[in-house]
Write a structure and sequence with these properties.
mainly alpha, 13 helices
Amino acid sequence: MGELQPVDEDIQDALDWARQCLKEMGVFEAEDGLRWAAAHGLVLSVWRNGPIEDAHASRSTGRRKALHDGTMFARNTWLTRQAFEVLGSDDQFRLYELEDLVLDRDTVWPGCEGTLTDFGWGFLGEIKKQVKQRIDMFRHFEKSLPPDDFLVFAGAPRIGTHDDHYGMPKWPACVEAAVRRLRGEDEEFWRVRGDMMTRIGSAPAAVTADLEATRKRLLESPWELGAENLDWFAWNPILQPPDRTTL
């Protein structure tokens, strides 16, 4: 990746702070934890916090399909997995591979029934601009920083937020807790959250038919459950880690 230049003192201070925060989140204790945190940070910066959020918040049109929470759940987790794989590559242009994946307008999104063109129509130009700007920024820092420092830099957007999302340290505990609750084994959860769960409604039959299969898919590849089933899980306290049941 070329000869590294000395890191600016302010950037080094920020990296040291970020590394400490990620340590407190348990990132360094989890298997491939830093790489997962970096994957999340990339997806958050390049994709999630951008024009696609405007499409998500907008009503569907005759040309643009509804981009509901389940579709975003499937898309975000799939892209996080792709970012994780890209970060495991030695290809010096690996970030542009991620850019191509994000901006591919023709491939049907895994777990969904549409493409970027279908779900992002009306925002495609803004999405392309955002993705390319952010990838160029990350590429600049990838060339400037040692490999681990770059992962810390990429993972920094995850600090203090969503430590219980797919791939992050608390995700396995969230999945195990959800399956226990679906089996009716968490009495405290149902005591505290029973009314809310009644309003949300029963889990889809495809989720409860084989809870072990559901557990494996949630843990490893949530998009395989399909966007419609994931819509039930989105913003659902059933996926909260055990220590947040009463929050």
